[in-house]
Amino acid sequence: MYEQLQEKISSTDVIRWHPGQEVEDEWIADAEQELGVRLPPSYKWWLKTFGSGAVGGSEILTLAPPEFRDDADADLVYIHRLNRANPNWPEGRIFILQTSPEEVFYFDLGDVSANGEYAVFREDVFGAKPERYADSFSQFLERLIDEYA
């Protein structure tokens, strides 16, 4: 299903990924339980196939082993906890990448497809209106590769 995307990721230097960092199913189940939502299928594929990676030096959030989650700066659940502690953080968002101090990407939990994919939005933290960036995490990765290549 994701063969072309896997080849695209494997053959580009836009996304630097780390072999041997694949995420285990138990970590995904633990994260989904704490978050209270199912993670999108293409994000789970990314986690189980590549595990983690970076774009321009910025880490795409991953899942650390639950016992190390509180010490993992690139852990999706840990960062979500920090964001939710901020009274200004909007509900219904799960942050996935910050490429610069001004630009963030997140899953919009209110914008979900029939197959469980959340739309990915890009927001300029200095006030620009959030923009729908991709219909799914897999499209998000493809667009990042195309834009940063």
TrEMBL record:
A Pfam family the protein falls into: SUKH_6
Stretches assigned to the Knr4/Smi1-like domain: 22-143
Designated name of the protein: Knr4/Smi1-like domain-containing protein
InterPro entries: Knr4/Smi1-like_dom, Knr4/Smi1-like_sf
